[in-house]
Design a protein that fits this description.
2 copies of one chain form a homodimer.
Chain A: E1 3-4, H1 6-13, H2 17-25, E2 33-34, E3 40-43, H3 44-58, H4 63-75, H5 80-121, H6 125-129, H7 137-146
Antiparallel strand pairs in A: 1-3, 2-3
Helix pairs in contact in A: 1-2, 5-7
Chain A binds a DNA duplex (30 and 30 nucleotides) through residues 5-7, 16-19, 21-22, 25-26, 35-40, 62-64.
Chain lengths: 149, 149
DNA sequence: ATACACCTTAAAGTCAACTTGAAGTCAAGA
DNA sequence: TCTTGACTTCAAGTTGACTTTAAGGTGTAT
């Protein structure tokens, strides 16, 4: 079995040791054990827990809610259903975030076209004053949205 | 021409009036004019600026950088190129964010399968102790990543 | 046994982006 | 004219997630 100190595990995860200590303090790492002298001893299986925490963090979940999930997991098999429900909820949240970023991407692509056209003409007034049917079809709805229609 | 107070514009945008005042204070709204008595007067065209600010915010850009963009825009046509460069940079950033969220989504889908399997069997030890070739092909790389391989 | 790197805790500090509160001003309707 | 609701500024407070600092303990290598 391989064991790690907080510094080693932090390095492996690419985070600061203080971050792991902070997570522990906040109750997110109840699974981490201690040596005789009080030093944290991370096991190989703890890496997986930290990976799950990292995954949930990437979904935008707050530490207090991640803590709830970890606490459920510590209860054992009786909490399988609420854990499943939470995962499904986060999955839907991530899908919504992707959809929103894709809309943002379309807006940026419009702006890219806008400034490219401005650059070619030496002035933003050319793309700005174009009529709807003069601009590429894929950007029409974007401009309508930006202008409040 | 239609004009709006800070409260009306905030409502239209779905933000708090204090947010718009804060943005103004931070120099993000140099285009907003004032009445004789010192009250902010938002024009129709300001809605579009606020939409651009909102778009950049959704990319994760900080207010100080959005301010830089707005300041460039206020300089006029001589800043078309740096504005285009900034838009392209944000576009790439958003693409990377989408890719990361998609990876997170795959992890959540693995976890959904994991807890569904646990639920069917009454214990997480069933999915946990499965060998790699027992689990659905699409989840193999996810589990390898979570376990640190 | 001593040095040294790395560990410990507790408390305070930081940062971005707001939000709230206090005290006062503006403008539209009765 | 007066009331009323929304506006103004400035300063201080809030939130979440860390990071830093200080004072001290651990553990391994020589």
């Amino acid at each position: 079995m391989m064991y790690y100190t907080v510094g080693e595990m932090a390095k492996r995860l690419g985070v600061a040791p203080s971050t792991l200590r902070y997570y522990d303090q906040e109750g997110l790492l109840p699974f981490v054990e201690r040596s005789e002298g009080g030093i944290r001893v991370f096991k190989e299986s703890d890496y997986e827990w930290l990976g799950v925490i990292g995954c949930l963090k990437k979904t935008g979940m707050q530490l207090r809610d991640i803590k709830t999930f970890i606490e459920m997991a510590m209860q054992g098999d009786q909490t399988i259903e609420p854990r499943l429900a939470l995962i499904i909820k986060q999955k839907e949240s991530v899908k919504a975030q992707i959809a929103e970023l894709e809309e943002t991407l379309r807006t940026l692509e419009f702006k890219e076209w806008y400034y490219n056209t401005a650059k070619e003409n030496g002035t933003t007034s050319v793309p700005r004053n174009m009529t709807l049917d003069e601009l590429p079809e894929e950007f029409r709805e974007v401009r309508l949205r930006l202008r409040g229609n």
